[in-house]
Amino acid sequence: MSQNQVAHLKYRPDIDGLRAVAVLSVFFFHLNHQWLPGGFVGVDIFFVISGYLITSVLYNDCKTGRFNLNRFYQRRVARIFPALFTVALATLVGAAYIYTPQDFASTGAALVAATLSLANVKFMMQGDYFHISQDAQPFLHYWSLSVEEQFYLIFPLFLFLIFRYARRYLVPILLLLGIGSLFTCVILTQIKPIWAFYLLPTRAWELCAGCLLAVTPLTTINGRFVRIPHWLPALGLLLIGCSFVLLHEGPQFPGWQAVLPVVGTVAIIWPRETLHGPVARFLSARPMVNIGKLSYSLYLWHWPVFSLIDYRLYLMLDEMRLVLKISLSLLLTILTYHFIENPARTFLNRPQSRRVAYVALGAVLVLCVPLGLSVRQNNFVDAEISDVAKGGLEFPGNIGAATVVLMGDSNGSMYGKEIKRICSELGYKLNVISVSAGDSLPERKTDSSQLWRDSLDAVSKIKPDYLLVANSWSGKLRNDPKRLVVALDKLKPYAGQIILLNQPPILPKIANRKSIREGARPPFLENTDVRAERLKVNEFLINMQTSGVSVVDISRHFEGKNGEVLFLDEHGRILYHDPGHLSGYGAEKVHDVLKQALRERPAGSDPRNDLKLFGKVPI
After folding, report:
1. 453 and 317 fall within a common domain
2. What is residue 556's DSSP assignment?
3. Where is each Acyltransferase domain found (predicted)?
4. How confident is the model at residue 181, as a pLDDT?
């Protein structure tokens, strides 16, 4: 084996030290964004390191004739999945005890995406990394692991084929791919910044930077070693430090800004033969190396720990939460590294353990995917548009019992789990055709949506005894209230009783866990204009009441004596999922009201006169 090949495989403590820099930057950024505004670029450092190390191994295997995909993926399984799934399952258990049902459902869906290495795609479709409710997304950091795992699925065979059939063009091809990816990243950051942030094609150039380091010869044409400036690693560390301080989170990243930490990382890794400078000595120091070895477990644990603590203990003092986050993250990291990650990697890496590694991976996939789907389906009942065309989500009841259909948008789906529970208690059959972000009301001036046509068709075929309809009424009826009149005229022939659920109060934007952690406190008052519009539309619903159409007053259950919006129930549980939607606990609060409506609600009565069941509707 040549000296260059040895250099590729020789253990480099400075890279473990560089891992420490990367994970600590992410750790402190998530502890407090103001401490290290650009600390999130630690992920970019990890990408370069991963590209370099993986390609070093693969390239050496190609040169020595030992390339073997089975062996490669065995190493990846041993390295990645034991700790990953340990943390994932522990996180799911924690979320079950801490999160509201909707957020627990979201955690289940995220577990499925993380298990299938599609977390980046899921969060790309969900929203901005920097602005979605981060304490309710304990798998958010898995997006970067999914990017790497997607890279591992594609790159080994690609490298082997290029090495075998176009070896002399390997460096130009990697360079071309890297430049193309960078160009795509820069352009897409301007057009679709969320896509640019999450997708492999726009992040591949960072991995390619490490790949190029691994395959670039260390010698010149005449066989002499390249003279690398002794100050290059110091420049690299300076560039990384500048990126920590100068870069800030937001839609302008990655784009050109990501070049700063990537070039800095390359400058540190590249001098493979000059590892005795001050930067190499700093990174190779025992504390840095030890932290680097713990970096994977620390990266896995820190974010779910931070999320669950912030979610549950949002009223606790910042200093106490800070101490708890640090201590619990470090404790779990050390335990996981010594009792899960390291032993499992040693055992599963043995040649005789290859089958065990693959069987274990398959078993975990079989466990986690159905488990995550079950958590999602049991904690948030919401139809897809395609489901409505098939009659919606169907939950059977007793033979001969009443039939219920739940229809609407996300304001309908927020009652889905509770309506399902009520129907189970009563033995009713339930069909859910409510669709989040959908518009299931007809248009009078333009063509109606396919969702409305499918919803009407579903109701006409099911002919339910009870048709529950809930929408964001102030939004759906703002421009044309008579849309509801048309909808009721079309629906009434097919439903025994139509029950409209009025719109609960809407929280101000400041009423959330993040704002409370930053000092905001109840009581929270509804915006005056928003309140006026909501009361107006709720009054309009009452006027829609005729024989066969009734209204349930949901709103009064979420208003305090002084007009404030109730944020917590008597058990301290959050009643709202977001400003306009009730949480599962909020829906649970009106369980008896909804159940009574499905049992005894007389057609055509005025809910303003029905004080016993529903109280007064504020006018």
Report:
1. no
2. G
3. 14-333
4. 97
Model pTM score: 0.89
Tell whether 619 is covered by a domain. Answer: no
Q: Which helix (H) or strand (E) holds 126?
A: helix 119-126
pLDDT exceeds cutoff 90 at 493: yes
Cβ–Cβ under 8 Å, residues 270 and 219: no
Per cent of the chain over pLDDT 70 is 92
Q: Which helix (H) or strand (E) holds 16?
A: helix 13-31
Identify whether residues 270 and 233 lie together within a single domain.
yes
Strand ranges inside 417-514, DSSP E: 429-432, 466-470, 497-501
**Residue 569 maps to which CATH number?**
3.40.50.1110
Q: 426 with 368, same domain?
A: no
Inter-residue contact 28 to 36 (CB < 8 Å)? yes
- Number of other residues whose CB lies within 10 A of the CB of residue 543: 10
Q: Compute the half-sphere exposure of residue 91: CA atoms within 13 Å on the CB side of its CA.
A: 35
| Domain stops at, among 313, 344, 376 | 376
How far is residue 63's CA from residue 69's CA, in Å, rounded to a whole number? 15
pLDDT bin (cut points 50, 70, 90) of residue 27 is very high
**Which one of 319, 346, 376 terminates a domain?**
376
- Report if residue 530 sits inside a domain: yes
Q: Comparing 515 with 271, which gets the higher pLDDT? A: 515
Are residues 393 and 369 located together in one domain of the fold? no
Token pair 């670039």 in the structure block, residue:
216
Structural tokens at position 297: 């477990």
**141 and 159 together in one domain:** yes
The DSSP bridge partners found for residue 393 are 432
CA distance 308 to 310: 6
Region of residue 563 (phi > 0: left; psi between -120 and 50: alpha; otherwise: beta): left
Q: Give a yes or no: residue 614 inside a domain.
A: no
| Integer Cα distance of 607 and 597 in angstroms | 11
Helix (H) and strand (E) counts in the chain: 28, 8
Range of the domain at 273: 3-376
Question: How many domains are there within the chain?
Answer: 2
> Contact at 8 Å (CB) between 427 and 595?
no
Q: Is 261 part of any domain?
A: yes
Same domain, 296 and 389: no
In the sheet with 549-552, reading across from the earlier edge strand, the strands are: 393-395, 429-432, 403-408, 466-470, 497-501, 549-552
| The one-letter amino acid at 212 | L
Give the C-alpha separation, 89 to 448, whole Å: 44
Q: Which two tokens stand for residue 323?
A: 């101490």
d(Cα 563, Cα 566) in Å, to the nearest integer? 9
Does 387 lie in the same domain as 266? no
- To 10 degrees, the CA torsion angle through 327, 330, 333, 337? -130
Average pLDDT, the chain: 90
Cβ of 125: how many Cβ atoms within 10 Å? 11
Mean pLDDT confidence for 204-212 = 96
Q: Residues 93, 11: one domain?
A: yes
Structure token digits, residue 4: 């260059």
